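Researcher: Please translate sequence to structure tokens.
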Amino acid sequence: MNTTFNPQRTGMVAAACTVVALAVGYAFPQWQFLLAVALSKGLVALGLVLLLRSGLASFGQGLYYCAGAYSVGMAMTYLEWNNLVVLLVGATLLAAVLGGILGFLLARYRDIFFAMLTLALSMILYGLLIRNPVLGGSDGFNVYAPVIFGEKLSRPALFAVTVILTGVTVWAIQRYLQSRAGRLGPAIKDNEVRVEYLGASARRNIHLNYILAAGLAGFGGGLSSFSIGHIDPDMAFWTTSGEFVFIAILGGTRNAYAPLLGAIVLELIRSLAYQYAPNTWQVVMGASMLALIVFLPGGLISLTQRALEKRRARQHAQEAGL
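Model: Translation complete:
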């Protein structure tokens, strides 16, 4: 994989993907909700990619996804805030600060210990939410359309905002992955001791990635709450966190665009399976996911790598023929 840092190309790819998503959404309005939810979940999986590149799997990103969503719901319910920017910034900062605090503990652990600790922390939040009526109990909160520039956002406008914000975020994370700090992740996964010998702090880099992953999850939770219109404790349940891990693996970890692709494909398969096989949709979905994992172990994004390799092979063959 070519890791040469090219900000212009990164921006062009992000802009092209954003335009395509907007075009598809407005050409097929019935898919706007699915795309908006998929992109929101893709942002959470994007944070997981940062950790997976360092060899760590978090089964507790539902903690920050739920924290971001609940910050939006509670701010609307108790503080009567409705400004989109304020709500999303608050959701992101709350999740990032929480991730920063817990990261001091989690950055010390690796492998199964890291995964189980993240899962345990997420389930603690789930238990607190489901038994606390002040926090909505098992019913949660309703979330209403936010306001920007004094105007309440309609569904199509909210979809456009979600796509644009996602595009900007993916562009920023892709640039991070191509920076020195971003490239340390695979090096830590390969040999953490060697990274330490070279003068870089593996623990500090993992802590930074964990904070970024938490912030992305909170941001995705805030966006998701607007699209769905309701939040509940299940957002912190272990199955939700497991879905984010699956999305990250399904898309791949080669770049920042992969988890968004994985999230869209997963939501599309789920929607079609539920529509055409309502009684056996879980079986259809499971079989589809199993086939994708078996035949594309590198994730969906590996298809682009295969296409590039075939293109280079043809070019070399043509040059050799000349």
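Researcher: Any highlights?
Model: The first strand starts at residue 141 and ends at 142.
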